[in-house]
Records
---
Amino acid sequence: MILTGAKEQLFTAEIRQQLDVWVAKYPAGQSQSAVIPCLHILQAESEGWLPEPVMDALADYLAMPKISVYEVATFYTMFDLKPVGQHKVNVCTNISCMLNGSEQVVEHLEQRLNVKLGETTADGKFTLREVECLGACCGAPMMQLDRDYHEHLTNDKIDQILTRIKS
């Protein structure tokens, strides 16, 4: 849990302990090297996204410029800067997936979830996104649902995956 103060964002003792585990893995004075795992921790504690005050507090905590935290958070598609659904569905549309039917995967997901790419379902359960590459070209077409990869997708396989998540 992240606690908010009047002027600043404060991390609970539990969060600081998690952050410190990662900071300790790097040489003294190099705490900024832990920015990616720290962003993962904070995103998980912030309902799946990174509010600006949380990123500012992390920059202060790691003794690095705020812009450097923003650069990392905006570069990687695994970080979200606005509220998202409980489950993130990332569909790879890069060349291997495209050649193997990612357009049909996107169409099917849009129909099943009743959203377009970049949108979140009305119940707040799913956010559907297009991503460039998830590094699973041999399993194309594929999607990432939260942290799990699902490869060789068909409409039936997608339906089974969504049914398991919804129940």
---
Amino acid sequence: MKRIVLFIATNLAVVLVLSVAASVLGVNRFLTANGLQLGTLLAFAALMGFGGAFISLWLSKPMAKWSTGARVIERPQNELEHWLINTVARFAHQANIPMPEVAIYDGEPNAFATGPSKSNALVAVSTGLLQMMDRREAEAVIAHEVAHVANGDMVTLTLIQGVVNTFVIFISRIIGYAVDQFLRRGDQEQQGPGIAYMITSIICEILFGILASLVVAYFSRQREFRADADAARLMGSSVPMASALRRLGGIEVHALQGGLASAGIASGGSWLALFSSHPPIPERVAALESMR
């Protein structure tokens, strides 16, 4: 989940920096020189929106390494690191993708995959996860992360982010222009947009950007189900992946079976679940159980 939150936060920061830079460089005056030119504004919004998303994608791997302190394994130093490299290599071969970088980091049980392309990816596993799980469960988690790389999930998420960025910037500038014109009504002397245009646009970009993360989070949750299923296929069984998820969620088998009826969308907890990049673990386990 950390890599998705980091990607969204980086994207929002990049888009805001690009927006401020555009204002300082006078782009706003060009867009509003003869009234608000919607066609030109939409092209500008798409350039900024997809530019911000792809810059975030390009930064995803170094940012993930920096934020977790992940150490890329270049020369395995012990049996565990040899096993980790060989496991990733085996699944990468099965998934028909180039060998990703493999890293290990200190932290709570978790793992992630990131990178701008299938040929420039990183799979990282925490020491906490390797200590908590048996080898079969850890293999399933690694297969899940390799599936993310094979499915091109980071690129897909970037394209979705680029689309929502475009609409966020486009609508924010329209609102900013309307507010600026309202505040300047009767003032015929000032040429170009006023300070209200820039301030309103930036505030709207922040607010709409947060709301747009709901769309990105929804697609992120769907890709988790797909990666779970692909991990089960790479493993030849859904049991190890389901077992790994149960362990991560601290769910006993009998407790899960007794609570499946309450694992639907309505039981997801508060509305904050809409911002989650991962579905509830009981729902993921139930989906894997249905594959048997």
---
Amino acid sequence: MKLVLLALSVLAGFAMGALGLPAAFLTGPLLVAATFSITNRPVIRFPLFLYRLAQSVIGVMLSFSITAKSLQTITAHWVPVIALVLAMLVLTTVIGIVLRRLTDLQPGTALLGTLPGGAGEMIAMSDSLGADVRLVTVMQYGRLLAILATISLVGHFAGASVGGGHAATRAAAIHLAEPLHYLISAIIALIGATLGTRFRIPAGTMIIPAVLAALAGIIGVPAAPWPPAILGTAYLVLGLQIGSNFDAAVVDQLRRLGLFVLLSNIFLVGISALLAICLMPLLKIDLLSAYLAATPGGLDSVAAMAADLKADAALILAVHSLRLISVLVIGPFLVQVVGRRLAGSEDCLQKPEF
């Protein structure tokens, strides 16, 4: 059955690629794996190091979208960047409070389900804070699917080309030294995966390889863009792993909260689009890069899309990294303080009994 899942995932990747959708081998396998997981069929779960390595491969690819101009833009316009991060934190907190009042969700569950950290980080944090892990999973991954769908639409209407781009240009420039440059790429990816697995650095397996590969290019020993087969395999691993996190229990919870979760996700995605439109003239960037920076999706999935759509990786990594760190630092405090105020007692964060 796992071979069937793998075959269908590859076919789904090719099908989405034929439709011109970005990161086809991420979204296609993700949807197939989620379907298998929800219907209680066997799924493929990769070892942690292999999953981190796939993220690092994409991180290396992101380095080819990091330019001196984009770094200068961030430095010169740090106020709008920080304002964007703060605005998303405030908006998601408000959405969580409203969701709490409209449903019987616990405050901690409502807030962690809406905060714009990575889905994995929010799910891991929810258990230690006494929130309902299942409901946080529903809300975070439901939003992830909505964001992936909207990114595909924005990329299409923004006229973004899929795949290649920077990579193809760079490859043509260094074709005489391919073995050395591919070796550099491989070493950087292994370093990123090792450090990310060993020290559990938030989004480290994306950020570290991107930074190292960019630095390698600056000192005159550039890494090489990955061949399509390697990059496609990395997307495939990410898609299968993320999709396998969905299960039947998640669907059961959606029966009770589906409408509220859907409306909150639609509102959040709409606000992200408005913030992106406001960000465009301030930073003088394109709509796609602005939307990818403003969207509350997890860094791994958004970064994968950015690599495939040749968006402004430096801006996107900066905003998402800053936001993720902010959520990880203030998230627990925010959940406890808001939770006490809403519930009026210390035990508001205890897990509900089913």
